[in-house]
Design goal:
Blueprint (H helix, E strand, L loop, with lengths): L9 H8 L3 H8 L7 H14 L5 H8 L4 E6 L5 H16 L3 E6 L4 H13 L4 E4 L7 H9 L3 E4 L10 E4 L1 H14 L5 E5 L6 H15 L7 E5 L3 H13 L4 E4 L2 H14 L6 E5 L13 E4 L2 H17 L7 E4 L2 E3 L6
Length: 331
């Protein structure tokens, strides 16, 4: 049974089974007013014919596409890829599909991909803005489309957002290094990130103060190119720093690779942030702050779904707890 060409429609299934289009539609949706025997028969015929539900037609009737967009940075960064995978699973569980759009951490591209998402009539948007102020955020606010900001805290309380406790994460990283005997430590951030860099640094400094580390022995280094990172690492060596808190795991791995190249492999202990190794394997195990990505994905999809169905809800700011996972890169 089936057709050789063309898309199989609901009417085709109705004709093949002898039932009305309305009965077929309700059977395919597992409506309880259709007998189990009838439902199973119609579903069997539909499968054999290769019928696929037309969500565009459904969206025209309901006003919803059951699609949400995720606007993230560079997907070559495992952080974004892992979060996208977790969001996809949660979205699918609640009957949504996820459209992933990469903005390459560029404000102009964020606006372009947001326009693309809005043109596709998505029901809602999940966004990780790269900079503040963000033109994409201004466009989202004026569009009226439901949205949730992920892993970033925008000034003010007008946005739904989910962040981990960035300040506490920086504190845990600094304290971990201090507890393992390091008395001169530094935070290394390659690309300052909206909100996160500042809060992690605040927590790192708090750990130094509580640990009795002199202000002159609690340093901060930055560099957004290979040349600058190498120069920064050499400066830290000259300053006799022994422990580094890297802004995130991806940056930590890049710094470790460069340390190996320039002969500083045994000069520094490292603590990262994001606990990417909790989701994927990597040949360089590092201690890292776990920021609760799985919980962030679950809450994000649930919060966006609620916002889609009730836009009068007050804005929600969710702060997730963090924890330190030790893999002995602190020694």
């Amino acid at each position: 049974m089936g057709r050789s060409t063309g898309r199989v429609t609901l009417q085709d299934v109705a004709k093949a089974t002898g039932y009305t289009s309305n009965t077929v539609s309700r059977a395919l949706k597992n409506k309880p007013d259709i007998s189990v025997q009838t439902r199973e028969y119609i579903q069997k015929v539909a499968r054999e014919m290769g019928y696929v539900r037309n969500y565009i037609a459904s969206s025209l009737r309901s006003g919803r596409t059951k699609t949400i967009a995720m606007i993230a940075g560079n997907m070559s960064n495992p952080f974004y890829a892992i979060l996208a995978d977790l969001l996809q699973r949660e979205a699918f569980r609640l009957g949504y599909s996820l459209m992933i759009l990469c903005a390459q951490d560029e404000p102009e591209m964020e606006v372009s991909v947001l326009k693309m998402a809005l043109s596709r009539q998505v029901d809602g948007v999940l966004i990780l803005p790269s900079y503040a102020p963000s033109p994409a955020m201004e466009m989202l606010r004026s569009s009226g489309i439901p949205y949730v900001v992920l892993s970033r805290k925008i000034p003010g309380d007008q946005d739904d957002c989910i962040v981990c406790d960035e300040e506490q994460g920086g504190y845990l990283a600094g304290r971990h290094l201090i507890e393992h005997g390091h008395r001169k430590i530094a935070m290394f951030s390659q690309n300052p990130v909206l909100y996160s860099t500042e809060k992690r640094r605040e927590g790192f400094i708090r750990a130094c103060r509580e640990g009795g580390i002199a202000e002159s022995d609690c340093l901060f280094e930055s560099g957004n190119s290979e040349e600058k990172i190498i120069a920064g690492l050499k400066r830290l060596k000259d300053e006799q720093v022994t422990g580094i808190f890297s802004f995130c795991d991806v940056e930590a791995w890049e710094e470790i690779t460069l340390m190996d190249r320039i002969g500083l492999k045994d000069n520094f202990s490292i603590v990262g942030f994001d606990n990417i190794l909790g989701y994927i394997n990597f040949p360089k195990p590092i201690c890292s702050v776990d920021c609760g990505l799985q919980e962030e994905a679950r809450i994000a999809i649930d919060l966006l779904r609620k916002r889609i169905h009730d836009r009068a809800l007050p804005p929600q700011q969710v702060v997730l707890p963090v924890s330190l996972v030790c893999r002995e890169s602190c020694n």
